[in-house]
Specification:
about 325 residues; alpha/beta; Rossmann fold; 2 domains; 4-stranded parallel β-sheet; 12 strands; globular
């Protein structure tokens, strides 16, 4: 799917687009018709997805755009400029779905014309996947650790966590910090850990597969997410699903998952002192730790499992089809 203008020189990009656009569009239209596809649901919008917006106009199929974060915002802030292709894609949609109420509000501040066709559906977790790894599979003498699963970028605030962990040294000198994830700031964060004198107790384990993520979550003392911005906070929901106490920043969609003091601890972002206090409170108060972990797990089961997310999408699709000519199609066999 080519764009009229791209990384290549316009004298190359434009002729290629003019050549390939009708071919690609024909292929997409043929695919949608042959498979009798009634709903196209796009996730993480990119400019070249505008082909589906054209198909929406040609076939009158239902188009649902699910935006998740960096496709609309960078470091929690609006982009300097939004392309015509993206605006066309948003405008052509029958429904735009965000992962949290907060993100929906932020999106409508940018694109108020979408008000009548925007909703939010929380992301969901797979309990069976996360609980497939039990604590019995881990060595009993493994060191105790605080866990953070996050990209190493400005958005996630891992630098704030390193400063907060430094303040916990006297309280829990044997406690380790495990940082799972990777990103452009990893080198700077490793250097920061060294300068703070916590390098020996901080492990940068890089990107982990889903099995290893489940093991890390099942065996941590506390899960922490120090984000500066967060469209939803799926890692928080996954930690709660593993019955872990969570300390996180009150940004984006996280307060829609955690009720401070009942299902987790919320602190203000960019404040190492407050983050350290929240971690210390959970480490030193057994009753608090057990209570928020138990309540958090119940909340995930009741509201944030993938079957809830799927049911919400199914209901949205059904409502759209009832009022759309696409509803006359029958399901393919």
């Amino acid at each position: 799917m080519q764009l009229p203008f791209g990384e290549r020189h316009p004298l190359v990009s434009l002729p290629v687009f003019l050549l390939l656009f009708p071919i690609t569009l024909y292929q997409l239209v043929r695919l949608l018709r042959r498979r009798r596809i009634q709903v196209v649901n796009l996730h993480f919008l990119e400019d070249d997805f505008f082909y589906f917006a054209v198909c929406r106009r040609v076939l009158r199929t239902v188009l649902v755009n699910s935006v998740h974060g960096s496709d609309i915002f960078l470091v929690g802030k609006p982009k300097v400029k939004y392309s015509r292709a993206l605006r066309f894609l948003l405008g052509a949609a029958d429904l735009v779905v965000t992962p949290s109420r907060q993100y929906q509000t932020a999106l409508l501040d940018l694109f108020p014309s979408l008000k009548e066709k925007t909703t939010f559906i929380h992301n969901g977790v797979d309990l069976a996947e996360l609980q497939s790894c039990s604590r019995e599979t881990v060595k009993r003498n493994q060191d105790r650790y605080i866990l953070c699963i996050a990209g190493h970028n400005e958005n996630k605030g891992v630098d704030v966590l390193l400063h907060a962990f430094k303040e916990l040294q006297e309280l829990a000198p044997s406690l380790q910090l495990i940082l799972a994830g990777d990103g452009p700031l990893r080198g700077q964060l490793e250097a920061l850990a060294t300068s703070l004198g916590i390098a020996e107790r901080t492990k940068f384990v890089g990107f982990q597969d889903r099995t290893q993520v489940a093991k890390l979550l099942q065996n941590c003392e506390i899960f922490v997410l120090p984000s500066r911005a967060e469209s939803f906070g799926i890692a928080v929901a996954e930690a709660l699903a593993c019955k872990k106490p969570v300390v996180a920043t009150a940004v984006g969609g996280i307060p829609e998952i955690i009720e401070d003091g009942r299902t987790g601890i919320l602190v203000e972002p960019d404040n190492p002192g407050r983050l350290a206090e929240g971690l210390a409170a959970v480490l030193t108060d057994t009753v608090l730790r057990q209570t928020i972990a138990a309540n958090g797990y119940k909340t995930v089961v009741q509201r944030f499992c993938h079957n809830h997310t799927g049911a919400a999408y199914e209901a949205a699709f059904a409502e759209l089809l009832e009022s759309s000519p696409a509803g006359v199609y029958t399901h393919s066999e």
